[in-house]
């Protein structure tokens, strides 16, 4: 199974490989899955004081919003509101009609890029997203599910791994919330959430969007970071492998067959092959 990997806000492919590399190496080691990394198309500059936090540039995002730096929606997320439920927190963070916090036109541009990636690589059937990349990934799944119901479209994404993040964006550039939508998302998913993540409500609201019978909750016992060491990394790698097996065992899912390059066996007698060619001539 091949996964498309999306970095977080102010990230790039290099940073994503550093963050996700240990997990990807574990899962790829036995051939369970492979990972393709891409970066967003929205060039951005980190907010003042965070220039070194996000590592070497250039920096990108998948979702363009209404401002840059302090005027960006990312600044609002840094001061996540408190509320009784994750959904209430998201409504407070991105209220309908708010001119500063929220996304405009981001959904369409992001989806265009992700569908291009799917069209270019028919083997991709899974997606991994970290932080804002998780929202972008969820937005693709949300759109695929809507197209399935309205157009008979067959969704490409069969499995998703979310590291923190927040919900998908609707066509109105607002977060899709479980207590406002008619149908939960029916995709096998693994949700890695840090118990100490200051933006945990966003990740919980994302988790709540998915069918309970198909969503797995993984507590990383950390903050807004991806496990990269020790026992937690081993458990994460196994959780991703288990997700892949679950998808493969689901009889209702048709997975693309990977292309296998034809190679000569190292034990083949080359002179014998030469003789065969001569005899055929």
UniProtKB/TrEMBL annotation:
GO terms for molecular function: hydrolase activity. The lineage of its organism: Eukaryota, Fungi, Dikarya, Ascomycota, Pezizomycotina. Keywords: Hydrolase. This is Serine hydrolase domain-containing protein. The keyword Hydrolase applies. SUPFAM superfamilies: alpha/beta-Hydrolases (SSF53474). It comes from the Eukaryota. The keyword Transmembrane does not apply. One of its GO terms (cellular component) is cytoplasm. One of its GO terms (biological process) is secondary metabolic process. Residues 2-234 form the Serine hydrolase domain. PANTHER family: ESTERASE ALNB (PTHR48070:SF4), ESTERASE OVCA2 (PTHR48070).
